[in-house]
Structures are given as C-alpha cells and as structure tokens.
Design goal:
heterodimer; A: 15 helices; globular; B: alpha+beta; Nonspecific Lipid-transfer Protein, Chain A; 5-stranded mixed beta barrel; 19 strands
C-alpha cells in the first residue's frame, strides 16, 4: 500500500443548534475551511467520502446527494459511510484506503450532523426526540421496544465492567476529576461547544442522574450540530501540498478496526458485557501496522461518549491496565493541561487525552466527530512537536464498533 | 382498548403545520418549519416469527446449534454463524435465569418511552447449561415499587413472567427477582403477570422529628419564594404548561401541599383534601435542595423521596426544571 498523508483539516464551530445553517451549509463551511487550510481548490480533489450517521437527523435519505454539487464535488466519485458513533473513523478509514490503494491521489473526507432540529411534541423539547432518533439505531424486534438508548446501552457495558472490575470506573470522584480536566481543555478550543463553561468535579457529582447508578448529566457527551473535513493525499501530493502550505505532513502509520457481534452473550462470538473488545482489537491492529506500542504515544483524541467508557477505552488501548484505569488520575497518567499550556509536550509517562475537550466539552456532530478529533490531534501534534498520536472511534449498541488510527508527524516537521 | 387496538403512533404525537421565526446568534431572523419523518410499517417478523409465536403460547424458544451446542435466545437466527451456517434446532428453554450484568435504570427516556421511567432492562443468561449462549434482552420489574439501585445486580436469579394479553412482542415478557416469588410461582410455566401484585406499595411511615419542623418551614419558605419568582419567569411558566396537580407531601418536619395550576405553583401548609398522589421524605431538606437547583428526581432515584407510582415520577422532571428556569429568568 502507498504512504498516505493528511494535508488539511477544518471544522465548523460546534453548537447545540445552528439555526443559521442547514447541514448543506455546515458541510460546505467545513469544506471551505479544509480546502483553505490545505491551500487547495475543489478541482484538485479526486474523490469525496461523506460521514453522515443518521438519515433521520438530516431529514433526508441519501443526504449526501444534496451535498455533491454544493461542495464542489460534482462529477467526482462519492461514497457515504455510516457506522454509528464510529462513522467518522470509518469514513477516514475509507478515504485512507482509497489513497493507499492508488485509486485516488487526493480524497476529501467530510462528516457532520444536523442533530437537534428533532423535536418532541409532547415534552415540547428537542432532547427526548434526539435520544429517540439515536435509539432507532437499535433493532425493532428485541432492543428498541425495551426502551434502549445510547446512554443505557453504554452504561450496561460500563456496569458489566464494574461487576468484573469493582473499585475502578465505579468511583464517581475519579470520573468527575477527568471531566473537570477535560473541561479545562475544552476551554482552550476556539470551536468547542462548551468553551465558556467551567465545570468542577463537585458539580459533576451533583448533576442529575441519566442512568442510575452510573451516569450523571455532566458525564455524558453532547448533542452537537457541526461538520469537519480532513484531506488525505498520496505521498507525492502530500509533499507538494505541504510545500505550498508550509505545514508539516502528518502520515497515517496504522489503521485498526473491529466490530463485535450485536448480540450479547457468554462464549462463542457473542459480545461480552464487561469489556470493549472492539477497542482492544482496533488499537492492537493499528499499533501492529504502525510498528508502535502504547507507551510510544503521548497524545490521544478518543471518542468519549461517556467518561466511564473513556476510562475503559484507555485500558483496552493499553495505556493503563484493565481494572486499574483509575490510575489515569491516581498516578497522574492523564496529563494536566495547566502544566502544558499550548505548546509543551507531556512529561514521560503521561498522556494528553482529548485536548480538544473531547465529545463531552468539544462537540459531537456524530458523522464527523472523529474528524473533529483528527483536526485537534493534528493541531496539537504540530504545536507540541509530538511525533506520534492516535484517534479513536466507538459506536453502536453496547460499544460494539471500534476503530483506531495512529499518525506520525513528518520528521521534517519536527522543529 | 386492548393492546392490539392501540394506535401505532399516539394521537398526541404531533405538531401543528407551521413556519416560525427564530433569531440567530448574529441577531438575524431565520425560519423553521414543522415536519415529520414518520414511516408506518407492517413489519414482518419473518424467521423471528417462530420465537414470537412461542411467546404468545407462553413458551420461550431458542435455537441450538447441533455442532457447537450454543443456544441463541431469542432465536435470532436458525443457521449458526460460528459453524458454517449449519441449521439450528428448536429448543424450549426454562423460564428461569440469572442477570448477566448489573442492569441500568433509565431515568430520562427517549420520546417514545416518556411516562415509563424509571424503568430497567437487562440481559438474562437463560441457557446456562449450554457451553455458549446469547443473553435474553428483557424488561426487569420488581413487586416492591419502582426499580432502584441494588435490586437488579449481576447474578440475581430471575423468573420470566408473561403478560396475560400477549401480542407477539418482546414486551410480552419481563423478569422479576426470584426472591420476590413463592415456590409455587417459581415452578409455574408460564407465570402470568396477573398472578403477581404490582399494586402501589404501602406508603412508608414518616419519621416525625420535632427538630425538623424548622427545616420543613425553611423548605416551605424557599418554595414560596420560588413560587413568587415563577410569576416573573416565562421559562418556568412554559415548563408548567397546562399541567394541574395537587400533590401531598409528608416529611419528618410536617406536611404540606404543592399545587400546580395556571402555569404557577402554590404551597399550602396542609395536605390536599384530594391529592393526585402523596410523596414522603423523612428529611424536608430534599425540597430545600430542589429549590437550590437540586433534583427531586435524583432524590427519588437515590431513595430519599418515596413515590407511589410511575405517574408521580413523571411529574418530577417538570418540577426539576423550575429552579433552573427561574435562575435564568429572574436571578
């Protein structure tokens, strides 16, 4: 396979609702910024991959059809990817493969969501309908009729983990401290949805129950409207474009993915309730392809749908032992942004986790959330001169979809 | 109206057809129009029909692989994905199992399940003799009142209960902790919902404490102050909408009545003569904390506020919005 570089990235502001823009405009805004970042014109793009999670949110089946012309992608190949919460990761994996295979020289990967126009007529608020729209991702025979939601599904998995590994993610103080640290990081992100908020650990532990006894309101990700784009290019085009922009290339070193079975169970191919096997396999595959190990990586932008799941994911990806993920806080493994500022590297033994504020403070426009993560990762790796970084995506019932991508800052980009 | 005759979409699940104005962050005027993406289905059960027909007959049907002996319940396929899709056999399963993991309790449900909260669903290991098996996704209910933490934990032995009026739905069944049933009930297959008592549990005796009288009075004063603020809070008035309630509250420091009407609330010193329902809290500070941007829902979830039923629980999220709305509009 050919070497693939990332040469441009752009995102919209993350908002709870954009009344000023349809998803057409949000996607175009992200594309304008992405092309501008790469100093490219739309005609230089060979192909486009769209990450859009849910047709019901966009209020249109085949929503990408309306985007093609508006994004300057008319008469080019276009592929829409939808894989639950991991849509953004899988869209980038698709774009990467298209370049790595030699089919295209430059691929635009753009994803987003217009999520909160949904409205519940009985409560006269949006949230219950947004939850319901996501819950439509569960089957109509066995799961949806029981009232399954993303929150209770992820919490089922977290509570299963807590059964097997008590005293770890079950400590609400540890979870709340992680939230407080990510809040500070989100405050630094000019595009973050909650960049003005100051949330303390005490406020997290006093916030309202969503799922008892394991999820409070301030431990959950947001519903966001927005979009983000990433441009993948062949080695030759990468060097040409980076010469033009003056920005260092970021090379894709390893890509890993795994989707577990839908049905939970004991043994065979069933999804175990106490682990996120998809995250473990995805990370192991990405590390193997990249020829690196977790201790080589000091920055991660991971898909924090819920803070308890963030802790398990960090364990599955090998940054802390499973059953001892609270060491992120207890042992100071999670780097403190107050000591790093905007351009310092984490000390040896520490990992900078979600400097964007993650999906909890930064934003979660589902189809493009992992592009949001890649946008931040690239920015932080360049600013802090970090050689290796990783993004992660998770999704679907009980967190059965998982993906990880390891990237490397070009040697010439190291100051 | 029987289950079969209920409309697929509730009749109040609708919006008026209209286009309305909104103000953007840039202070410009934008438009929004009401619409829907409702699709009706006559959803085929296909190969799953065998499982649901069995449920209607009061039986639990799984599919078993003759090669690896794994059991799938519900019988979601008849060809084993682990054994080159060999044909699977029907196996009728016992109506007993254990919870495979501690189950989450949903407090804020999706739009389609508003009114059902708090509810609990979980995964039950039914085919325990099989070397491998799927878990049965199932509603979990208790005869001791609303679900709360500590009841449905990993390893809890449960009994499958069948609704009397079964339509062919996963909601035709639910599980109850085996410890809540008699030996006869545990042995019966199918055990019907009508054979159990889910009546409103007995109201707990409130623990009166003279030292709490002042605490109760302070709570009432705080609620009256909030009631006055609601007069100046359009958000809080919108929260209350067209609701009317007469709620009795018994606390360790004395009783009071909480009335909702005309987009306002009112606090009276005595219990309503005809209350919609009565809540019980030994500690009146539950209500002081509520006014201070706390949550009655959390108090109910954690057990410091007793409620008689799900309908009462459904009122709490509305009341919980009031302190926040008042803070945004008035304070």
């Amino acid at each position: 396979m050919r070497k693939v570089g990332i040469v441009g990235a752009g995102i919209t502001e993350c908002r709870g609702r954009w009344v000023e823009a349809t998803y057409w405009e949000l996607f175009q805004m992200a594309v304008r910024r992405t092309l501008d970042d790469a100093k490219m014109k739309a005609e230089e793009i060979d192909s486009v991959v769209y990450g859009i999670y849910n047709d019901i949110f966009e209020h249109q089946a085949i929503p990408e059809s309306a985007l093609t012309g508006l994004l300057g992608m008319a008469n080019k190949p276009g592929t829409r990817v939808t894989s639950g919460g991991a849509t953004g990761f899988y869209a980038m994996r698709t774009a990467y493969m298209e370049v790595a295979s030699g089919v295209s020289e430059t691929v635009l990967c753009v994803g987003g969501e217009k999520a909160t126009d949904c409205f519940d007529p009985r409560s006269q608020t949006a949230t219950p309908m947004v939850i319901d729209t996501i819950a439509k991702s569960w089957d109509p025979f066995f799961e949806y009729p029981l009232g399954a939601t993303a929150s209770d599904s992820y919490m089922q998995m977290c509570m299963g983990y807590n059964d097997s590994y008590p005293g770890d993610i079950g400590d609400s103080k540890v979870r709340a401290q992680i939230v407080e640290m990510m809040c500070r990081q989100g405050n630094r992100n000019p595009f973050a949805q909650r960049r003005e908020e100051k949330v303390t650990a005490g406020q997290v532990m006093a916030s309202r129950w969503i799922i008892a006894p394991f999820l409070r309101l301030l431990e959950a990700c947001m519903y966001t409207e927005g979009a983000g784009g990433i441009i993948f290019a062949s080695e030759k085009k990468t060097r040409e474009i980076c010469e033009r922009t003056g920005q260092p290339p970021i090379w894709v070193k390893g890509v890993g993915a795994a989707n577990e079975a839908y049905a939970t169970g004991r043994g065979s191919y069933y999804k175990p309730l106490d682990r996120i096997v998809s995250d473990r396999l995805a990370a192991e595959r990405a590390y193997a392809m990249a020829g690196v190990k977790p201790s080589d990586i000091q920055i991660v932008e991971l898909h924090d749908a819920f803070v308890a799941q963030l802790m398990i994911t960090m364990g599955e990806m090998g940054f802390v032992p499973i059953g001892q993920t609270r060491r992120l806080i207890d042992d100071g493994i999670m780097a403190d942004i107050r000591q790093l500022g905007d351009d310092k590297r984490p000390p040896k033994g520490q990992v900078l986790i979600n400097p964007s504020g993650g999906l909890i403070f930064g934003g979660h426009f589902v189809g493009g959330s992992n592009m949001f993560s890649m946008w931040s990762l690239r920015r932080e790796m360049i600013n802090r001169q970090l050689e290796l970084g990783m993004i992660h995506g998770t999704g679907a019932i009980n967190a059965v979809f998982g993906g990880a991508m390891v990237v490397e800052l070009d040697k010439g980009g190291v100051k | 109206m029987s289950k079969q005759q209920q409309p697929a979409l509730p009749l109040d699940f609708n919006l008026p057809r209209e286009t309305t104005e909104l103000t953007g962050k840039d202070q410009q005027t934008y438009l929004q129009f009401t619409s829907h993406m409702v699709t009706f289905y006559k959803q085929t059960y296909g190969e799953l029909s065998r499982f649901f027909l069995a449920l209607r007959a009061g039986k639990l049907l799984g599919s078993q692989c003759p090669a690896c002996k794994q059991v799938m319940v519900p019988a979601a396929t008849w060809h084993c994905p682990a054994c080159n899709f060999v044909g699977m056999k029907e196996v009728y399963l016992p109506h007993r199992g254990v919870l495979a993991a501690t189950a989450p309790i949903t407090i804020f449900p999706s739009a389609s399940f508003i009114g059902d909260a708090p509810f609990c669903r979980g995964y039950v290991d039914i085919a325990r003799d099989a070397p491998a098996a799927s878990f049965l996704p199932c509603r979990l209910q208790t005869t001791t009142g609303l679900p709360r933490p500590g009841i449905f934990v990993k390893g809890t032995e449960v009994k499958l209960v069948f609704e009397d009026d079964r339509v062919g739905s996963i909601r035709d069944i639910f599980c109850v902790p085996a410890s809540e049933l008699t030996r006869e009930q545990l042995a019966k297959e199918p055990l019907l919902a009508s054979e159990l008592s889910f009546e409103a549990p007995k109201m707990p005796e409130v623990k009166r404490n003279a030292a709490l009288t002042a605490v109760r009075d302070a709570a009432v004063a705080a609620m009256r102050k909030m009631a006055a603020d609601i007069e100046r809070s359009p958000r809080a008035q919108k929260d209350l909408g067209s609701r009317t309630h007469a709620i009795g509250v018994k606390t360790g420091g004395g009783d009071f009545g909480l009335y909702v009407a005309n987009q306002r609330i009112r606090i009276e010193d005595a219990l309503p003569a005809a209350a919609d329902f009565v809540m019980v809290a030994d500690d009146p500070q539950v209500f002081t904390r509520w006014v201070g941007d706390g949550s009655l829902t959390d108090a109910a979830v954690e057990g410091s506020l007793w409620l008689p039923n799900r309908a009462a629980f459904g009122v709490l999220p509305i009341l919980d919005r009031l302190p926040r709305s008042v803070r945004r509009d008035v304070r």
